[in-house]
């Protein structure tokens, strides 16, 4: 068999033409799904973090991207000074280096809920096969 025998039926029926739309549709669909499931949620999370950083005030407890926890003592422009540990070490960071901002009211409410025992306890997760076990 030669190449001509395979190409003649395609030429006769017009089969090899007009497939350009389908070929272009697939990559566009993949890029759209990547944006929907990967890029969009990340941008939304970044926007929420930026809003928290902009709402940060003196007295809030913060955690840096390096894991340092402290209390905000000064905010000047793009820099935040926090006080850490018992020795009250003062460290200055850029606002971009702050990963979490915790308000004093929220911390107090969490402590009160933990002391009162009203905090939700996670349910014990059972595996798929545990439903088939016989209880002794």
How many H/I helices? 3
Question: Can you tell me the CATH class of the largest domain?
Answer: Mainly Beta
Q: What value does the Rg take, in angstroms?
A: 29 Å
Measured between the Cα atoms of the first and last residue, the distance is: 72 Å
**Unreliable parts:** none
- Outline: flat
Task: Give me the oligomer status.
Answer: single chain
CATH arch. level architecture of the largest domain: Roll
State the CATH topology of the largest domain: SH3 type barrels
Question: Care to describe what's here?
Answer:
- It is a single chain.
- The protein is α+β, with helices and mostly antiparallel strands and 136 residues long.
- The protein has two domains: 10-54; 57-117, SH3 type barrels.
- 43% of the residues lie in helices and 21% in strands.
- It has three helices and five strands.
- The protein has a five-stranded antiparallel sheet with strand order 4-3-2-1-5.
- The longest helix has 35 residues, at 20-54.
- The chain is flat.
- The termini are far apart.
């Amino acid at each position: 068999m030669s190449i001509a025998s395979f190409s003649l039926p395609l030429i006769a029926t017009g089969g090899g033409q007009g497939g350009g739309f389908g070929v272009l549709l697939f990559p566009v669909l993949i890029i759209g799904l990547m944006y929907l499931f990967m890029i969009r949620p990340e941008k939304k999370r970044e926007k929420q973090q930026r809003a928290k950083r902009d709402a940060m005030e003196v007295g809030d407890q913060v955690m840096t991207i390096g894991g340092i926890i402290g209390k905000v003592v000064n905010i000047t422009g793009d820099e935040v000074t926090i006080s850490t540990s018992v020795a009250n070490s003062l460290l200055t960071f850029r606002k971009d280096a702050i990963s979490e901002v915790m308000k004093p009211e929220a911390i107090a409410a969490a402590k009160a809920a933990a002391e009162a025992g009203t905090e939700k306890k996670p349910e014990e997760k059972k595996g798929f096969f545990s439903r088939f076990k016989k209880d002794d």
